[in-house]
Structure formats: structure tokens, C-alpha cells
Amino acid sequence: MTHEQYLKNLQPPKGVVDVILDTDTFNEADDQFAVALALRSPEKINMLGFTVAPFFNSNSTSPEDGMLKSYDEMMRLLTLDGREDMKKNVYRGSRTYLPDEKTPVESDAANFIAETAKRYSPEKPLYVVAIGAGTNVASAILKAPEAMRENTVIVWLSGHAREWPDTAEFNMRQDIAAARVIFGCGAPVVQLPCMGVVSAFVTTKHEMEHWLKGKNPIADYLYRFVTDEMDKHVPDLAWSRCIWDVTAVGWLLNEDNRFMKSYLATSPIVQYDNHYSFDPARHPICYVYHIKRDQLFTEFFRKLGN
User: Fold this and answer.
1) Which of 130, 188, 207, 243 could form a disulfide bond with 156, CB atoms 3.0-4.6 angstroms apart?
2) Residue 176's pLDDT is what?
3) Exposed, middle or buried: residue 59 (CB in 10 Å: 0-12, 13-18, 19+)?
């Protein structure tokens, strides 16, 4: 890939693009919103398929259990949105995290990403949008390094802002080896940091009630999923909820910087003790530094409320 093409691929795309969305759908109540926005944006996004990432927290008993629950949740979302046609394009992902930075984890998801990337080119890249641990994407890189480096743009919600005191964000810290593979592989990478950037993308119960409640099956499901979760945990407090993962899909819709702002920055070196190091000789990435909260939520609610 020429340097000129590389820099072009770090800009929001123009026209319709082919996309794979890698998601830990059952982890919390934001992946579902990102899936819904991707499905409701055919004017920009041609969804090739969904790959399901591992996760391990209070909603799972192991990374494998998290991945399998996320697979079931993906099927539920496709039913709610009337997209039975897409169910054949959902791929189970890694059952463990990377054992090291050189060994991929075998999965249908990693194979699907790697093999699909081989059919693209720098001039017509495949967009891989990742909103979970980087295991599936990193495994695809290790399986097909040239195709992934040359033919993809990787959009990843991960880490925190560079001025944040640590990098112990959930997606990144689950599989630091995968993060190091992704940021070091040389592919065009778009990073959407969580705390300090995407943390501004919050909504409230009453806003969701106005825009989503009762509008259609998937909109109502998203409203109830979030409000039930929050009312259970903070029943006597005012609350707002960050819907993190929508922003990664939102970057694909970001022509003319409608929804967020970014700049080119040196690709970080993610360290195992939860901090970044930097080498000025490393390749650049697209670093998102500001989310236009109202504009992106307006786009989301408009599409989901129909």
C-alpha cells in the first residue's frame, strides 16, 4: 500500500463500504445498540457478517461462556429486527484469549475475517469494526498478516484517552497480547478511546423513553434492556448511561466529521502493566478525540425509531 493510500484509508469512508462487526454482544447493554445502528444504515454499511468475541465478567463464567452467550444474543437481535437472512452470517469466535503474540486462536470468526480480507485491496478495503476484546481480529492478523495489513481498516473501541492515567479499559485489558498485535500490525487502525473521549456519549432513561419505547421490537428491547439494568443497580439515584459501542459504527458514517473529530497519531505500544509507550518511528493511526454527542444520538434515534 502506498503511503498516500494508507492515509486515505484512515479517513471516514465515502460511499457504501463492506463491514464485519466483531462484538461481545452479551457483555453489557451497548453492543446491541451498535448492532442495531449497523443494520439500520444500509445507505453506508453493507453488512457481510458478525463475529462474536469472548468476554469474561459477571455476565459470564469464562471467556468461552461469554462468547457463546453473545452468539445467542446476536441471534435474538436479528430476530427482533426481522433479519433472519443474516443469521447464517454470524460466526462463533475465540474460546480463549491469545496465549502469546504469535499464536492465533482458531475459530470460525478468525477464519471468516482472514479469508474475507484476502478478497479486498488497499483501494477497496474491508472494514473490520471491533467492539470487544481484540482476540478474533488479532487471530485473523496472525493467520493472514499481509491481507489484513493491506486490505483492511480496523476500527476498534479500546483503551482510554492518551492523557488518562492507565489503559485498563475492558476491551483492551482482557487480551493485551491481541491489542499489541492490532496496533503493531501496520494496518490502518482507528482507535476510539473510552474514558476521556467516548465516555461523553451518554443518554438517560427519559431520553430513551421518548425516542425508543414502543417504537418497534428492537427499539423497545434496547430501551428496556438498559433501563431495567440501571434501575436494578441504582434504583434511587439519577443516572445516565454511556452507550460506548455505537461510536465505532458511527465512525463509518462520519463523512465531513459529522459525528466526531480525530487526528493522526503515532500507533501506541500497549504494555502489559496497563499503560502506553510510544515510539515516534511507528506508523500513524486515526485517533478519535471528540464525539459530537447530540448529532450522533440524533442519527441513532432517528434510524432506530422508525
Assistant:
1) 130
2) 98
3) middle
